[in-house]
Amino acid sequence: MAAADPNGPERRVLVVDDDAATRSLLQKVLDCPGTTVAVASSAAEAMAKLDAESISVVLTDLKMSDANGLDLCRVILRRSPDVPVLVMTAFGSLETAVEAIRAGAYDYIEKPFDPDALLLGIDRALEHYELRHEVRRLKVAVEGARAFEELLGTSPTMRQVYSLLDRVSASDATVLVTGESGTGKEAVARALHHRSRRASGPFVAINCAALPESLLESELFGHVRGAFTDARTSRAGLFVEANGGTLLLDEIGEMPLGLQPKILRALEERKVRPIGAKDEVPFDVRLVASTNRNLEVAVEDGRFRADLYYRINVITVELPPLRARGADILLLAQHFLEQVAEQVDKPVVGISSAAAAKLLAYSWPGNVRELRNAIERAVALTSYDRVAPDDLPQKISTFEGKQVLVAGTNPSELVSLEEVEKRYILAVMTAVAGNKSEAARILGLNRKTLYRRLHEYGVNDD
Q1: Residue 389's pLDDT is what?
Q2: Residue-level pLDDT at 68
Q3: CB distance 161 to 145 below 8 Å
Q4: Which residue among 320, 343, 366 closes a domain?
Q5: What is the Cα–Cα distance from 236 to 249, expressed in whole angstroms?
Q6: Which residue(s) pair with 207 in the sheet?
Q7: Please, what is the end-to-end C-alpha distance for the chain in angstroms?
Q8: Rounded to whole angstroms, what are the CA distances from 337 to 252, 327, 352, 435?
Q9: In-domain check, residue 462
Q10: How far is 95 from 92, CA to CA, in rounded Å?
Q11: CA–CA dist 56, 128 (Å, integer)
């Protein structure tokens, strides 16, 4: 039987059989480092042990003097639904096996049993129990990581973002959200809106790159009937529609140059003139702009007006790329997995260790959006209750990193190779929630070497 992970839940198998010789034999067969075996001679004693001790798996005989093993299985399923039950019987038949599964048994073992088959069945049951334990832990972690509305993560970079958003949300100051495509800039804008005094007002968003200049101007400022060929009715623009709320100008770096002075005037005057109208219409909105471009470079190149840039860049919120967020990758992956599995009504509950290692190793050029798409695909393809590496897109499952991320170009900020190694080892330990066996596997180190490194870093067993 596989050795237990010292950082996982305790592995404790309960053997229930009214024959003393069988109990003794099973105890010897199942005994291994990291796994303890408890025994019970009756169903009543078994239930008492389940109430008093932490049991991972129950292995029960079908025919006992005081109870039927199937009845015991049903009771355990009601009282301890996370504990898998394996039923043994010397009266093996297809009908009995079907009856055991219907009673809620995890598996069915025939007597006389083959030790290897028995150990394999127990191992699978223990893995099932540990998976349920890990899923519960991840669910708790996901909820604990939700620090600001729908934004999820506990990495230092995201904590800095939350801190800034907390301070900004109560004000009406214009916010510029920057970051690579797919990092969640619109989620930040929505979070700011929901935390602000304007939460009861509308949240309106428009992608400045999605429309040609003429249509974008009409969308933002509105128009009166007859202002142009297709203007059959008058329409208020988004500045007015967002009155009392928040307006998000997404991808503002793509705003046509000819429209930029009109946007600047509207922000300065807090009024807009619909196309074809004589009078201006006042509005009251909080503006949030977002971009994946470097607007300072765009200003230098003459592609973005300097005065508009300074007007929208009152407070800057910079979102980190997913590859720089460490353990957040697994938190987000589990969150998306639960969402998608519920939507498609598929019993997928977690991510295998091997798949988790692939997710952590990948560079995520498409950031959070790419991660969600990968998890949605994996849930659709997997045939098991855990996502495996083969369920992931091939570019992720076969990815081999060839770059080292450098935080800056200032020589005084660069660190030694030894320090890079230390930071990476500690990041992996954080990502796997302190599971040394899993960390050693991902790092390609044996456990002894990993323990020595952690001791050198001053990391204790806790």
Answers
A1: 92
A2: 80
A3: no
A4: 320
A5: 17
A6: 250
A7: 27
A8: 32, 16, 12, 21
A9: no
A10: 8
A11: 9
pLDDT (tens digit per residue) in 114-153: 888 888 888 888 887 877 776 666 666 666 555 566 788 8
Residue 46 belongs to a domain: yes
Query: Strand, helix or coil at 244?
Result: coil
For the chain, what is the total number of helices (H) and then of strands (E)? 19, 16
- Residue pointed to by tokens 């860049």: 313
What is the C-alpha separation between 89 and 66, in angstroms, rounded? Answer: 15
Spatial separation of the C-alpha atoms in residues 290 and 60, rounded to whole Å: 61
Q: Which residues contact 368 (CB under 8 A, 6 or more apart)?
A: 182, 183, 184, 322, 332
Q: Counting Cβ atoms within 10 Å, is residue 225 exposed (0-12), middle (13-18) or buried (19+)?
A: exposed
Is the same domain home to 233 and 254? yes
Give bridge partners of residue 106 from the DSSP assignment: none
Number of domains comprising the chain: 4
255 neighbors 228 (Cβ within 8 angstroms):
no
Is the distance from CB of 384 to CB of 337 less than 8 angstroms?
A: no
Q: What is the CA radius of gyration of the chain?
A: 30
Which helix (H) or strand (E) is 14 found in, with range? Answer: strand 11-16
Decide if 404 is inside a domain: no
Q: What is the pLDDT of residue 240?
A: 96
Secondary structure class of 384 (helix, strand, coil)? coil
Single out the residue in 90, 113, 143 at which a domain terminates. 143
Q: Domain of 247: which CATH number?
A: 3.40.50.300
Residue 191 counted as domain residue: yes
Length of the chain: 462
Cβ proximity of 216 and 254 under 8 Å: no
pTM attached to this predicted model: 0.62
Please write the tens of the pLDDT for every residue from 379-422: 999 998 889 999 999 999 988 754 455 555 555 556 677 777 78
Residues paired with 176 in a beta bridge = 289, 316
Q: Give CA–CA dist 163/5, Å, rounded.
A: 36
3-state secondary structure of 417: helix
Domain holding 296, by residue range, is 156-320
Tokens 């992931």 sit at which residue?
Answer: 392
User: Which stretch of DSSP H or E encloses residue 7?
Assistant: none
Q: Which helix (H) or strand (E) holds 205?
A: strand 203-207
Reference 388, options 349, 353, 345, 433; nearest CA is: 353
CA distance 389 to 394: 9
Cα gap 12→1, rounded to integer Å: 13
Specify the amino acid at residue 13. V
